[in-house]
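One-letter codes give the sequence; backbone shape is given numerically. An example follows:

. . .
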Amino acid sequence: MKSFLRSFFASLLAIAVVIVVIAGVIASKTSEKPEIKDGSWLVIDLYGGITEYDPPSSFMG
């Protein structure tokens, strides 16, 4: 019984993952891309201060 339940829930999880992947592919194919005209500028507003911080330490040491 334990083996059956494990296989059953593993199959349900696999089906759910496949459905999510298929939905993601469909959503990425059907979404409209924004129209960007030639000569357009990207404006990024960096208002405010940027505080300094130490870089994160590496995982190796």
